[in-house]
Amino acid sequence: MAALANLGALAQTGEGALRAFIAAAQPPITVVIGGANLDVVINRLTRTEIFYVSQADGAGAKTQKTPRGQVGMPWAELLDEALKDQGVESAPQVKAACLWMWALPEAKTALNAIADTPVAKAIGELDKNRK
After folding, report:
1. pLDDT, tens only, 109-125
2. Following DSSP, what letter does each residue of 51-112 receive, concatenated?
3. 0.70 cut: is pTM over it?
4. In DSSP terms, which residues pair with 50 in a beta bridge?
C-alpha cells in the first residue's frame, strides 16, 4: 500500500523535474504533431499544453502551443535528461511512474528496468486489476 501512495509522489517529482529542465534547457527536439515530424524548441510544459517554437520558422518565430496529448515526444529521453539535470534520487522509479501515469508505451520498458521494486510490483497489480 505504501508503494501505491508513493506512486503519485514519484510522478509529481518527475513532472516537476521535467518542467524545470524544459524551462531551463529549452531543448531542441523532433516531435510529431498532426502526423508530421517537426523540429522544435520546447520552451514550456504545463499540465495540458506544450509550448514550442518551430525551428523551420527561424529566428523571431512565435511561440505556439498544442495540447499535450496531441504531441508525440521522446518523453523517456527527456525524463532521463531532466532527472539527471535536477539530481533526482530514485530516477528509474520516477521515470517509470511518470511514463505509466501518462499511459505511454515506453512505460513497459521503464517498469521492466525496475521490476523488483515495490513501485513496479504495485503498478503491476494495478494493471492486473484494471483489465
Report:
1. 999 999 999 889 989 88
2. EEEEGGG-TTPPPEEEEGGGEE--HHHHHHHHHHHTT-TTHHHHHHHHHHHTT-TTHHHHHH
3. yes
4. 45, 66
